[in-house]
Amino acid sequence: MTTEIVPSMEQLRDKRWRLENLYTITDKNGIEVPFKLNWAQEEIYDRMWYQMLILKARQLGVTTFFAINFLDDCFWYPNMNAAIIADKRESSEIIFKRKIKYAYDRMPKWTQSYNTARNDRMGELSFENGSSFIVSTGVRSGTYQRLLVSEFGRICLKQPDQAKEIVSGSLNTVSRDQIVVIESTAAGREGYFYKFSKKSQKLAESKKKLSPLEQRFFFFPW
Predict the structure, then answer these.
(1) Nearest in space to 154 (alpha carbons), one of 220, 82, 76, 56
(2) For labelling alongside 222, which of 1, 50, 130, 131 has CA 20 to 30 A away?
(3) Is the pTM of this model over 0.90?
(4) pLDDT at 213 (0 to 100)
């Protein structure tokens, strides 16, 4: 019988250490592996900001990174409310089951002495420390400290009413100490994502110091 080694408090205070030692994902071949930052995730981690816009190629693990990152925040910090908005219900179910719940269920057993979560309803984990993590196609009620809008370009292109609801409703549920991430592959030259991308890119090119309410631009080319 293998005995789990409990890390030191110094290690547990190190978010990078937690991310790469406490969480498990499946790789592109469906094999269970420890979560380790790839090159794109490294850049996001190193340049984290209050507001981020990520224009990306596919299969870079951006959604996976924030799923694990937000799970870590909810698990280790009390009263942290996080949400991921997906483009459709099927996508939200996949993100919750295969990324968040999958990683949570495989955390080392000793972490249960720090915190646990229950899955009261589809797409949400409620933690003993008062934190919660939900995945849906939109959120309006409550206040969130962490929010990811996944594949927003696709939402803008195919579901403009949902995109409008996200901009007018969901983005206004985030508190002042927030992290808000909008990410997508490119999807046309109109709509909110295109406008947000152009504005964020211009800010990046200006080299000006960003305020917490301005988006930091990330571009991961094809």
Answers:
(1) 56
(2) 50
(3) yes
(4) 87
